[in-house]
Amino acid sequence: MSFMLKDRVVVVTGGSSGIGLETVRLLLQEQAKVAWCGRNEERLLASEDAMRTAFPDGQFMTRVCDVLNADDVATFAEAVKTQLGNTDCLINNAGQGRVSGFDNTSDDDWMAETGLKLFGVIRPVRAFMNQLLASGMGSVTNVNSLLAKQPEPHMMATSAARAALLNFTHSLAHEYAPKGVRVNSILLGMVESGQWRRRYLDRSDTDASWEQWTGAIANKRGIPMGRLGRPEEPARALVFLASPLASYTTGSTLDVSGGFAKQI
Question: In this structure, is residue 46 part of a structural domain?
Fold first, then answer.
């Protein structure tokens, strides 16, 4: 089944690895025109090379961009319009979380975490909104975390910032629905990542396979599906919400946590 994104322009922030890169891959499979950015030039170039090998006829571009820098994001938005055309969908893939409780989170840490989770979305939305309004099928889709509804004490600042992003996403959806732009988000649980791979290499039980090791973690944390998510799984949810298949969905949050959510 097609996501109906052929020749549509889709922007993915934080697209050089993990969930972001799997989202890029799926979009290119759908023959969308894709632009993605990241702060690490080496990783960004590696992602571009990988996608060029996989999709030699794909239409895409990349750019080094700090989403917290308003000038960087504005320049990126103009470059996308010039090289690929008017943007139809914006997918905001925010950064990693901070592990700390109240006692070991400084004021600067609070500001940094809140700034990343909020302004890492606000600034791209501002930069691309005029293009989205002109699209006729504009959409904004934000990567958020289950922490927004199910906070963890050892990730206090991130949990609070994620809740703020959830609130912002809902408010933005209501403001722009009459103007033809949909706004949704996904709520992640525990997903395989480079960080988990590094922890696996340092594991104490060297006889355990990756599947056994991550399965034990999932069971210990109470994930009903008994495993961590794979990056391509939230990527599919992101592309669905961004696409015309979700044309009557806005202000929504799609849980991608393997049943880890405790709230009804």
Answer: yes
Tokens 């961590």 correspond to 228
Does the model's pTM come out above 0.85?
A: yes
Taking CB atoms within 8 Å and a gap of at least 24, the contacts of 146-152 are 146/187, 146/188, 146/189, 146/255, 146/257, 146/260, 146/261, 147/97, 148/187, 148/253, 149/187, 149/261, 149/263, 150/260, 150/261, 150/262, 150/263
- pLDDT tens for 197-256 read 888 888 877 888 989 899 999 999 999 999 999 999 999 999 999 999 999 999 999 999
Q: Are residues 102 and 205 in the same domain?
A: no
Q: Is the same domain home to 204 and 126?
A: no
Query: Does residue 49 belong to any structural domain of this protein?
Result: yes
User: The domain containing residue 43 runs over which residues?
Assistant: 9-191+230-255
